[in-house]
Each structure stands twice: as C-alpha cells, then as structure tokens.
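Regression test case RT-17, inverse folding.

Input:
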C-alpha cells in the first residue's frame, strides 16, 4: 500500500515541480531596464556571456550561469579562473571581448558607463549591472537571474542577502558607534561617506559615519578628505581602513595606530582600528554583501552574539 501511495503521489509532485520551474522560466524575447536606466532587448536565452568587471562576473556566477570573460583583477569565484582575461575593468580589450563571440555583454553600471558606446558598437546586447549601495545587490541578482533564465536562483540569492541584513539589524544594540572608514595609502587617504558602498553598509548597521555631509573629493563618488583636526574633533569609536598597495606594504591601520597625533582618538586608544578587505568593499561590491555585512557587524559591535 505504501508503494502504491508513493507511485500515486510522485507524478503529482513532479507535475508541481515542473509547473514551478515553468513559472520561473524566462520568456524570450525579453526587454528589461538595466541599472543605467537603458532599455535592453534580448532575443533568446544568452548562451555565451561576457561579464567584464569583478562585480558583473560575480553576479553571473551567483545566479548559476558562467562567463566566457573576466577582467584582470577577478579572483572570485574560483570557477571564473579559466575565463578569458580581457584586461583591466577601466580599459578592457574590446577585441578580446568580441573574439569570444558573446551573445550578451554584462558591464558595470558603476565602473564602466563610459564604455557604453564602444560596447554597443560590438553589435551585441549590453546589460549594465552594478553595486553602488547595498540595495543594488538584490536588484542586480534578480535582474541577472531574469535575463539569464535563472530567476529562481536570482530570487533566492537576493532574499538571502535581505534576510542577512534584517537579521543583523534586529540584533543591534541601542548604542551606535561613531565610525571612520579610510581608503588609500598611509600618506594619502580618503574618508568614505554614507553614499559610498562601504559607507552604506556601515550606515545600514547603525554606524554614525563621521564623514557624513562632507563634499565629494577625488575621483570616486562617495569619498571625501578630512583634516586631522576634524577627525580628532569627531572622536570616532571605530576606524576601518582599506589600504592600497602591494601585500606586505605598510597599512593605514599600522601607520595611524603608531602615530602620536592620533593617540587621543578613541578608536586608537581602545585598539578598535582594523583593516578590511579591498576586494569585497571596494573592487568587487556585489553578491558577497552578506559576508561584508557580517564582518562589519563584528567590528562595529564586538559583543554582538552570533
């Protein structure tokens, strides 16, 4: 009887699964609005995808697809290692991209909008995705999933990130720290404002960014310069640093921690000065945002329970 029951119910379960899969399948031709606000029409399911920045490579792999290309600095995911190196994100080789015969190019809406005309000249649909702030990441995952016929995975990954954020926010203590985020070299660094990617993550976790309200300074939006006097007056409880330079070189963290001029800063006094990953907070913002939030939460709130 048990066998009969199983045999009777299995086809129904299979039919339900098939219907669910069909409901999540993308219908082509498909027209979407990308993250530069462009209308993009894709005639058929993309098979040969050319993602051309660290962030876009991660979007493509995160939803279960693969890319034939990668920019030179891509180190994640491992599956992207065999993709064709097309050079740096800011100056990729259009010839190398074209040589892979892609039927879809996925470009970076934050890093690469200036490449739009050149990329469109390759005669292939170009979809711009990016991550200027956390909210862009679930949006990018859902859009990548839709375009690449991986809607179920895109939605699942987006919801995971949203759940990670809401779970962390629900556990935050009432007392919020003053935070300073620095990026650059020990001799020349900028402060991340709430409008930057890492600044947005800090703000979502309740951090009071001491660079808020300052004007943009430098080539990257969302960053400014703060005088030592301003920093001393703002009294940050936590200082986070993203140091540029080769591995093993002097870090911003080490430099300011041993600098007598910073001795009165609460973060230095309490040894709450830390280096954070250039890759996940600056070079490749995107699907690893959950990991990025987890690291920040522990640095901002050392007593936060797992």
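Golden output:
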């Amino acid at each position: 009887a048990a066998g009969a029951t199983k045999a009777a119910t299995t086809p129904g379960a299979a039919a339900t699964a098939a219907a669910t899969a069909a409901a999540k399948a993308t219908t082509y031709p498909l027209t979407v609005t990308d993250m530069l606000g462009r209308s993009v029409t894709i005639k058929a399911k993309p098979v040969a995808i050319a993602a051309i920045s660290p962030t876009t490579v991660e979007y493509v792999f995160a939803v279960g697809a693969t890319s034939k290309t990668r920019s030179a600095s891509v180190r994640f995911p491992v599956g992207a290692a065999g993709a064709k190196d097309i050079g740096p994100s800011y100056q990729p080789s259009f010839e190398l991209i074209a040589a892979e015969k892609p039927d879809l190019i996925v470009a970076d809406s934050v890093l690469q909008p200036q490449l739009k005309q050149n990329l469109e000249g390759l005669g292939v649909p170009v979809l711009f995705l990016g991550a200027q702030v956390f909210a862009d990441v679930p949006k990018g995952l859902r859009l990548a999933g839709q375009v690449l016929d991986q809607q179920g995975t895109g939605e699942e990954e987006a919801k995971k990130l949203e759940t990670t954020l809401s779970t962390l926010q629900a556990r935050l203590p009432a007392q919020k720290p003053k935070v300073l985020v620095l990026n650059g070299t020990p001799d020349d660094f900028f402060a991340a404002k709430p409008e930057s990617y890492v600044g947005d993550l800090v703000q979502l976790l309740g951090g009071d960014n001491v660079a808020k309200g300052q004007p943009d300074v430098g080539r990257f939006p969302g960053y400014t310069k703060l005088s030592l006097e301003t920093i001393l007056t703002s009294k940050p409880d936590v200082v986070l640093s993203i140091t540029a330079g080769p591995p093993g070189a002097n870090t911003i963290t080490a430099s300011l921690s041993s600098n007598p001029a910073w001795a009165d800063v609460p973060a230095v006094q309490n040894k709450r000065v830390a280096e954070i990953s250039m890759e996940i907070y600056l070079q490749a913002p995107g699907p690893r945002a959950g990991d990025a939030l987890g690291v920040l939460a522990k640095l901002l709130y050392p007593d936060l329970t797992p």
